[in-house]
Amino acid sequence: xxxxxxxxxxxxxxxxxxxxxxxxxxxxxxxxxxxxxxxxxxxxxxxxxxxxxxxxxxxxxxxxxxxxxxxxxxxxxxxxxxxxxxxxxxxxxxxxxxxxxxxxxxxxxxxxxxxxxxxxxxxxxxxxxxxxxxxxxxxxxxxxxxxxxxxxxxxxxxxxxxxxxxxxxxxxxxxxxxxx
Length: 180
Prior knowledge:
By secondary structure, this protein is an all-alpha fold. The chain is 58% helix and 0% strand. It has nine helices and no strands. The protein has helices spanning 2-15, 29-44, 51-64, 67-76, 88-95, 100-110, 135-144, 155-169, 171-176. The relative contact order is 0.10. Mean pLDDT is 85; it is low at 6-20.
């Protein structure tokens, strides 16, 4: 009798939907986007899907990652200064072609900070009034472009540098702006 109740309880747990465990829309934004792009790159480059080769490629990708994606690599242990190494939690499931959403779900269980990462809001350079932005935001625009503003002491210096570089990095925005 007791075994029958245990069997029914186990069966009920299997049939019930896994409430609260699946990712919601927008959750793990950086993880899903970065690993999705990484997976597609592996497929496009015909990389062998073994945990070792995926780990090697992930380390390469993480060397080039910036901002929030670099922070994700740090949490996973794919950077040189990372304290923990859970990189195999990415490479093993990916070698079996498990969807990146499921990989991120498992990573969330290991380290909840991974799913707290969100991309910074992008500034629309074609309509934004640069004079109304903070210096930190202007500096972030330049950082996203991989540029620096040496000798910039005032906000107007940053704005001038962005105007100089906009045709190179954001040609549509430069064409749409009348104040250039």
